[in-house]
Give the backbone structure.
Amino acid sequence: MNPEYQINIGFLPLLDSAVLVAAREKGFSEAEGIDLVLVREHSWASIRDRLAVGHFQAAHMLGPMPIAFNLGLAPLAAHTIAPMALGLGGNAVTVSRNLWAALRANGASEDFDAASAGTALRKVITAQRGKGRPRFAVVHPHSGHNYELRYWLAACGIDPDKDVEIVIVPPPLMPDALASGQIEGYCVGEPYNTASAIAGAGRIVTTKSMIWRSSPEKVLGVSARWAETNPDALGRLLRALYRAAQWCGIPSNHHELASLLARPDYIGCASEWLIPALSGRIWTGDGEVIAVDDFFVPHDKAATFPWKSHALWFYSQMVRWRQVEASSHNEAVARESYRPDLYRSALGPLGVALPSANAKVEGALPSAMPVGSAGASLVLGPDGFFDGKVFDPDRLDDYLGR
Amino acid sequence: MSPALRILIIDENRIRATIIEEGLREAGHGEVAMIHDMTGIARRIAEIDPDVIVIDLENPNRDMLESMFQLSRAVKRPIAMFVDRSDSASIEAAVEAGVSAYVIDGLQKHRVKPILDMAISRFNAFSRMARELEEAQTELENRRLVERAKGILMKSRGLSEEDAYALLRRTAMNQNRKIAEIAQSLITTVGLLDPGDSS
């Protein structure tokens, strides 16, 4: 059977490219009549440029990227939409051995607890004030990593702009930057926390899921122009990716998924580096393994649904950290960047569980909860922020303290 | 006449950087600097204080550089992606060639365009060169394989050199494969059957 569409998708070598890789390698795209061409890229900037000139129709993107593009915060970006997410969670914060020793001496617990690690970090920073700020790295200014690191620091009484320095380092170079002492810590997606933990060069202090459980990370960014002119191809792509996410979510597939992702044309690393994030059994870097609930969720809990409340949380952080002015226009741009309507129309025919709303109050579910959904059963949460706050997208101004 | 533009080339590939630098100098740009190593890049850029930065599109540090330009702490003047959005042909040509450029905000387009065009053409020339070199190397390797396979056939079946080559070619045509592939298979097989004969 000849494929009806060729779709070129750019990706970065990260664990959460899993759904894309599985869609191609496990035949889900082929079954939808799509020749899915995956192109490994070197930077988010390259993904943006190649989407803008039409080399790619879609790409693996940081959740805030389409919003930043549409707000005009990135040079040369094309109008981009997110009709699907590529999973929840998947990141962690790793620090150097030296900083970890100091955090332990100041009461950081060993179990990835965000509050105790953050409080210890505040004490370390206060004690060494005047002798230089710790330097942390994230992958991009408009990234979940930047926002969750800042959220965690700020909630623990650390000013991310004054008390620490935050620099940008490409994901695969994080472990080297830490080992060579250029940075004291970083927030990145897998497998680049595990890489430092296995090498013994760093200690994972907390995880994205511990800072904000069931939180948004990567999305499928799609050229808005292509999506408008190729609705049939987009629908097929979303169905293929949904089935791939289902496959990725089945524990008995994790070893096969890890060996697929480990291939040199995908992530290009030892498959042992990929197992911890998939199994939720995370190497600390101290030779121990800690079980973390919902470390990375590719499918369950509506993990691929592009919640408008996720888009608005990212926007709230752009405003909070002065990347963009707050305005009702900008808020609307952020809201319209995520397209649950396209997700619904593509997946409706499959009869799968779909949320009944397009936005939700984030951090409101202390435990897993069955929710009203069209057709099939769906469970959401728990989704708490570690500091107990909630984010109500209808009360954005309150959230930002305005 | 406006003062000469300071141009910075950031490329870990020294040969390619030199090719671009030569092109720019030949075109009359005297102030061209190069950085091959990303260590301490913020300080280096601040020292050089460039008007135009040309960078390899595949450099994984572009996200870092762009954020540095946006924060404008390391660089004195704000830097934007080079051409305006309307010039989509230029952007496409640059991305195709694998090059990206950033310029000081407000720099006139007619001053930047020739620099970009030069970088694009030199990047393309470099890629062509690299491709030709690779092809030449493959060609050489293939010829070596065919020579060895011919030698094996001449020795083991008493064929003339011409007949040995004809046999290889016929087999390749029948199997719809390349002569070098048949030669490689033959060499591998002989190696397996007689590990002592590795000539």
Q: What stands out?
A: The CA atoms of residues 68 and 74 of chain A lie 6 Å apart. The radius of gyration of chain A is 20 Å. The first strand of chain A starts at residue 5 and ends at 11.
